[in-house]
Amino acid sequence: MITDQEYMRIAIEEAIEAQRHGELPIGAVVVSPRGVVSRNRCREAAERTVLAHAELHAVNDACRALGTNILDDCTIFCTNEPCLMCAAAIFQARLRRVVYGVSRDDLPRIFRPRNLRIEHLAADSGYGPIIEKGILAAEILRLFDGIARVAGR
What we know:
Layout: H1 4-20, E1 27-32, E2 35-41, H2 44-47, H3 54-66, E3 75-80, H4 84-92, E4 97-102, H5 118-123, E5 130-133, H6 137-143
Parallel strand pairs: 3-4, 4-5
Antiparallel strand pairs: 1-2, 1-3
């Protein structure tokens, strides 16, 4: 059986690939009981759109791969706490678990604080998704060494 840490390492591989392409080091993996369904990374600069977040791509790819917009037997592993846009998509697709490495609070020099968090949307989702955080956080934090504050985030 593959562990949460092993799935998070796949998300970290995606984050490293994003960083190699000049993006923020953010990756995401959607997993079903049968294994990895999709994996993706931040592509905002390459695609020139704010919608090109790793989590949105991973959820969209999973929906297409499984032929459904309901992913209620899936878990998403994200290197970073999903933003509100990504969290809304995750909960719209009804993923049962969200596992992430670092939160916005872990990177105050990069991301601005927000009053609403993924936990707030989870509580309002209507189905009670499980949120777990801190998986491989130290490893993920190292990816952000030397990155300055991101405008508008």
